Each structure stands twice: as C-alpha cells, then as structure tokens.
Amino acid sequence: MSGEESRERLQKVLARSGVASRRVSEELIKAGRVTINGQMATLGDKAGESDRIELDGIPVLRDPDLVHYLLNKPRDVVSTAQDPEGRSTVVDLVPTDTRVFPVGRLDADSEGLIILTNDGDLTQRLTHPSFGVSKEYLTHVEGVPSRSALRRLRDGIELEDGMTAPAEVSMPQEGALRLVIHEGRNRQVRRMCSAIGHPVIRLVRVRIGPITDPNLAVGEWRNLTREEVRSLYEASTNS
What we know:
Elements: E1 8-9, H1 10-16, H2 22-30, E2 34-36, E3 39-40, E4 46-47, E5 53-55, E6 58-59, E7 68-73, E8 101-102, E9 111-117, H3 120-127, E10 135-141, H4 147-155, E11 158-159, E12 162-163, E13 168-173, E14 176-181, H5 188-195, E15 200-208, E16 221-223, H6 226-238
Parallel strand pairs: 9-15
Antiparallel strand pairs: 1-4, 2-3, 2-5, 5-6, 7-9, 7-16, 8-9, 10-14, 10-15, 11-12, 13-14
Helix pairs in contact: 1-2
C-alpha cells in the first residue's frame, strides 16, 4: 500500500480519535486550532499513523495500545513496577495484559490516587517539575498547626534539598490539612509538615491535576476516559 493510500482526511482521523464529530472537526481545522507535525492544518489535509496531530497544542491520542489507569492506592503498597523485598506493588493491582508503570510515587505508607500508564509523553508531563501539575493531599497531623505554621507552608519551607515552592494550604478541621503542591519531591508533604513541628499521621492524595474520584474505593482502579487524559495534557500545558 502506498503512503498516500494509508493516509486519511484529517477530520476523519479526528472523529475516530474521539476529539469531535467530523463536522465539528472540520470547524476546528478551519479555525486554525489543529496542526500536523507542527504545521497548521487546512481542510483537505490528510494524516497517516506516524503524523503528530495536535489540537490547541495538545496531542491527539490515536495509539490504541495506550492505556491509562487510575488507582486508589492502599497503604503498605509500593509505587514501583517491581519490589526487591517482595512487597505488593501498584502494578499488582491493575490488569497485567499491558506493561504499565506508575506516574510518580506515593510512599508505601501513603494512600490515594496514582496513575499507571504506558504513555511516556504524559508521564513526562506529569512528573517533570517544569510542567508544575498540581496535586492535592488530605493529611492528618499531630497537634493543631498555628496560623504562623500554616503561613510557613504557604510561603515555602526550607528543606535539606532546598526551598519548597509556595503551597496552597487550608485546615478544614483541627489537625487536618488540605495541601496543594506543584512539585514532586521525595516524601515532600511529610517533610514539610515535620518541618513545622506537626508530623503526618495519615496522608491521602485526592487529586492529580484535574483528576479526582471520591467514589473509587481503596484498592480499586478504573480506566481514565479520553476526556480525562486530554484534561491532564491540558493541565500540563497550562501550568
């Protein structure tokens, strides 16, 4: 089959990828919001499997082999693909027909949302500090932090590996903190809380970028929708 025969009208490719209907896809192309390999697309353009198509600067996912799982990690499960000590890993809790890896880490003694995927582009965007995708945590700490302690978290804490970026912090009830950070340092939230004199008792990640799911039971997983995956790309683009 020739290269031309293996290419399809761009609006058809967009429609099959779940971006929009063919008619709406045509309007997106006319509006100059779609690119092929970095060049603005026009009606009549065709695309093949190897072409990189973007809508508003965000990749259009067309690879049917890409999977994106959202897992609510229990305590005492490690966030690695394999563990030399034989402990249970997050990979053990999701389907094994496709090889996936956790995006970032949650400590073994922490709980909450973690993404597992074979999408290297998304993994880079969610883990590299330059993209600054926010993550939200609920934590119970020892004692009741004072206003000045909370202010320190908001202004940035000096840790052994440098000053943290300002965090969004609130205390919905005594001894319970809600923190939003844009970094991913090792055990960062725990170290921040210890630095203000209130060590963590329990730590749960409840949001990754725009993704949250209060109905996902501990130890359960589900597939992210196309819309959710796109929203993660958007969050990394707009951070």
